[in-house]
Design a protein that fits this description.
The complex is a heterodimer.
Chain A: H1 3-28, E1 32-42, H2 53-59, E2 67-78, E3 83-87, E4 93-101, E5 105-112, E6 116-123, E7 127-136, E8 139-148
Antiparallel strand pairs in A: 1-2, 1-8, 3-4, 4-5, 5-6, 7-8
Chain B: H1 3-15, H2 21-32, H3 35-54, H4 63-70, H5 86-91, H6 93-112, H7 120-124, E1 125-129, E2 135-139, E3 144-149, H8 158-161
Antiparallel strand pairs in B: 2-3
Helix pairs in contact in B: 1-2, 1-3
Classes of the chains: A alpha+beta, B mainly alpha.
Chain lengths: 149, 171
């Protein structure tokens, strides 16, 4: 066995150990579940979608609308630095990246393709509503996100 | 991901003295040997200083009353409208342009001013980029933050020229 191959094996072994450790570290990082819901608030009189009852409770004092319906719901599970995305009914892509997690809140970067981007520090179970940016049919889209970890 | 990139995300928290224990120690140890991150931290400090210098005055809880008192009174009482048009009326940019501008400025200062009184929205929204569109941040019912992006800003006088009404509304 040549001298170079004798040296190569330990290096290779160390590399494999490093990769495994890195993968385990990634797996052990906490998972944040984000409840995402895309709703449609319209002037047209109609029902309040039962799935949007909680959203309606939080909106009704600040906004008036004729009907509220849920178009999409998704549970997004993200680890640190992971990016999750979903396509909105308008065709725009919503991307969320988990930047930092502390005891009190989760720091996330949110981007709606070509419309807006923001950094949010959201306490656990706090609901953030993004609205107005997306006209859709005869109303507005409202994206709600709520972390759970 | 490089160590500097990881630190970059922690620097804001470090600057705001939000980091404790292990995280704080890690940042300090990294700063001791990384001139680039020290410069980044100095830049964050400069931005904070700039905000303090340009902010006109500390805002009190009666800010909204002061703004509302300076707004022109409506020409005529708003006639009762069917409920279905309210979303449109609320969103009519000309009608709300002064409020939005004042609200956006107040929100911006509340968020970035380190000495500002703590409110929930200031804690949630760290930064927003909205392609120069006005944004309103509201504390909603319960444990909620509402971030509302308004439609295109309206030039002064446009509301009057078009007769004022819901034709602006693009919903």
């Amino acid at each position: 066995m040549s001298g170079s191959s004798v040296l190569a094996w330990p290096v290779l072994l160390l590399g494999v150990v490093g990769l495994v450790a890195s993968a385990r570290a990634q797996e052990s990082s906490p998972v944040v579940v984000l409840h995402l819901m895309v709703s449609h608030a319209s002037n047209r009189p109609g029902p309040i979608d039962p799935r949007a009852a909680e959203l309606h409770r939080r909106l009704k004092n600040d906004f008036r609308y004729g009907s509220l319906s849920v178009l999409q719901q998704q549970l997004m599970q993200l680890r640190l630095q992971e990016i999750g995305s979903m396509e909105l009914p308008t065709g725009k892509r919503l991307e969320i990246r988990l930047l930092h997690l502390s005891e009190g809140a989760v720091l996330i970067a949110v981007q709606i393709e070509g419309v807006m981007s923001m950094d949010l520090r959201v306490p656990n179970h706090h609901m953030v509503l993004l609205g107005g940016a997306q006209s859709y049919q005869d109303g507005k889209l409202i994206v709600s996100l709520q972390p759970d970890y | 991901m490089s160590a500097c990139h990881r630190m970059e995300m922690l620097l804001h928290g470090y600057r705001d003295e939000e980091l404790r224990g292990w995280h704080r120690w890690r940042v300090e140890r990294h700063l001791a040997g990384c001139p680039a991150c020290v410069r980044e931290l100095e830049q964050i400090d400069r931005i904070g200083g700039w905000i303090r210098e340009t902010a006109p005055a500390r805002m009190g809880p009666d800010l909204w009353q002061q703004i509302a008192a300076r707004l022109p009174a409506p020409a005529a009482p708003i006639a009762a409208k069917p409920r279905s048009s309210w979303l449109g009326a609320w969103l009519a940019p000309a009608r709300w342009a002064p409020v939005v501008a004042a609200g956006a400025m107040a929100t911006f200062i509340w968020i970035l001013w380190p000495g500002a009184a703590p409110i929930a929205t200031a804690g949630v929204v760290r930064s927003i980029y909205s392609n120069d569109m006005p944004v309103v941040v509201l504390e909603g019912e319960g444990d909620t933050t509402i971030i509302w992006l308004m439609d295109d800003p309206v030039e002064p006088g446009e509301h009057h020229k078009k007769g004022g009404g819901d034709e602006h509304v693009r919903i």
